[in-house]
Amino acid sequence: MDIHSFSDLVTATWTSALTLVELGGSVVAVQLVISTVGFAMVLYKILQFTGISTGRFRTAERAIDLWGAGDTEQATKLLSKSRLTLARDLQFGLQNLATADREQLRDELSRRGMFFLRPYGSLLRALEIVYYLSPVLGLLGTVLGMIDAFRHLAAVAGTEKGSSALANGIWEALVCTAVGLVIAIIFTALHALLQTRLERVSEETSNLLTKVLTLGVGRG
């Protein structure tokens, strides 16, 4: 995408947002602000998860296998060069496996695994708030729109403007509801995708830590 296409996209998006605000009022403006913040969080999480590809876990697993096979030098080299921060913890576990108390080592590796996973679970709760709050705001906008519609209807009762006032209020109310539902649907899907990725990372982390602690089991 060249700079002109990007500029046109930004302009079109901004124009559409202003149109929605004009149609739905201040509640829609709040919904759009919340969704913009939400999309920023989603982008951050996507970039964060991109940094821990499956290949890095496979490399760490290969290093554990090499250590178990007696090639500690090559295993240490792979773990030292790994860009996976968990690799330092795996190296710690392997180096202390033969001398440390197994239960204490298990607790320590569990603690390190928890701290490794913590950043990847951040902001997911905030995304839940986005898709919970959006339809509620839509309902609020609907109620306010209907109140405004009947207020105007009462003011122009018996005149030709009565039906127009009611229609405008209902229109605003329905716009708020529609925007809230669209935001909720989008962020529910995005949150589910990110949650699935987090679960996959948690499974990979648990697999590696368990593999370190059970190294040598079944051999001989």
Description:
With 220 residues, this protein is mostly helical. It has one domain. 85% of the residues lie in helices and 0% in strands. The chain is rod-shaped, with a radius of gyration of 27 Å.
Could you give the topology of this structure?
Blueprint lengths: L2 H22 L1 H25 L3 H15 L3 H10 L4 H11 L5 H20 L2 H32 L6 H52 L7
Helix pairs in contact: 1-2, 2-7, 2-8, 3-4, 3-8, 5-6, 5-8, 6-8, 7-8
Low-confidence stretches: none
| Strand segment count | 0
- Terminal CA distance reads 59 Å
Q: Report the biggest beta sheet as strand number plus sense, adding barrel if it closes.
A: none
Structural class: mainly alpha
Summarize the structure.
The protein is built from eight helices and no strands. Helix content is 85%, strand content 0%. The protein is mostly helical.
Structure keywords:
220 residues; 0% strand; mainly alpha; rod-shaped; 85% helix; 8 helices
